[in-house]
Fold this sequence. Notes:
By secondary structure, the chain is an alpha+beta fold. The chain is built from 6 helices and 15 strands. The chain has helices spanning 2-18, 158-163, 182-193, 223-232, 249-259, 267-281, and strands at 25-29, 41-47, 50-55, 60-68, 71-76, 81-90, 93-96, 99-103, 124-125, 132-140, 143-148, 151-153, 171-176, 199-207, 211-218. A hairpin with a 4-residue loop joins β5 (71-76) and β6. The longest helix is centred in the first third of the chain and has 17 residues, at 2-18.
Amino acid sequence: xxxxxxxxxxxxxxxxxxxxxxxxxxxxxxxxxxxxxxxxxxxxxxxxxxxxxxxxxxxxxxxxxxxxxxxxxxxxxxxxxxxxxxxxxxxxxxxxxxxxxxxxxxxxxxxxxxxxxxxxxxxxxxxxxxxxxxxxxxxxxxxxxxxxxxxxxxxxxxxxxxxxxxxxxxxxxxxxxxxxxxxxxxxxxxxxxxxxxxxxxxxxxxxxxxxxxxxxxxxxxxxxxxxxxxxxxxxxxxxxxxxxxxxxxxxxxxxxxxxxxxxxxxxxxxxxxxxxxxxxxxxxxx
Length: 286
């Protein structure tokens, strides 16, 4: 009798373990939810009270979460708080923020560490285009690096990345990490100009995974700075194009800005200046 009772208890324990349903683990968005030109949470990773959200652009955010009934409260590292509906449909499917996710494994989560954006909330919300290329500009061990195809690389890897398999002129989206300085951005622009790409959209701030804010910019580099970059990196000068009309009001304003060395220290001030310049000059980036 005792043996039968033990078997029954063991069976109940096994059944309860197998049928336990919660959000812990890795989840990837259901293919029915994917839209080509939108930015969405591609991978979710719940671990204890922490949620990592990886976007379709491989941007990772960390939030501490509390779940109450069918609601989840997220506290992001940048101070943003958000509430979303969440429900466990089965052991292999959950619904989060009215989107379905299927259980997956850690292979779908980027191996790079999450980082924070500059925090500059511009007046422009990010509206991504399907024909685009994504670069993440971050500080890694106090040195400017880029994340390209889920791999941390030197800035010198930018031309190969941008030129690989490129048959058209895609839009370039550059995510700006919080520790990035003006000189880091200018060096990135120099490497990008080698690919004859002259416009960029800088992603500067996020509010959860839904709203990202951007500043559009021309990759203007003073001739002397660009030529020093060419010499320092021993880049052949044949075929390099003169990219800007130095007589234009836009370029004059940029020259004036960079001539003031005090403007070289603050990325936030540069983003403010560029946004205001775009508005004042009615710059068309199309």
